[in-house]
Amino acid sequence: MGFNRDENSMVHMITPDVCSYYDEESAKLKIEVELPGVKKENITFRLREDGFYIRAQKDDYEYIGTFSVCCPVIPRDAKATYANGLLTVLVPYKEAFENAVDVEIK
Fold first, then answer.
1. Residue 58 backbone dihedrals phi, psi, to 5 degrees
2. What is the rounded distance in angstroms from the CA atom of residue 56 to the CA atom of residue 64?
3. DSSP single-letter state for residue 81
4. Is the per-residue pLDDT at 8 higher than 90?
């Protein structure tokens, strides 16, 4: 990945904006990461059952962060796309979210 820097250059580290939610069938987790202006080849995304890591660079800005997911997922079945500065990852849950229990709010 292209993270070569001049030793005198200043890199600003930023936590990217992330939104995650279950899909319409409650079977997959959808993760959206905003990475404006970043080239696809400058993105690293690593996924585990319980969380993910993102690293991406644009000029003197580096987006970096680690995040937990609510329920275990199946990383090997994840699909990712990147367009217009938005990384979208869709990964199935180990158990469908439809079995979740509604909690009454008083």
1. -140, 120
2. 7
3. E
4. no
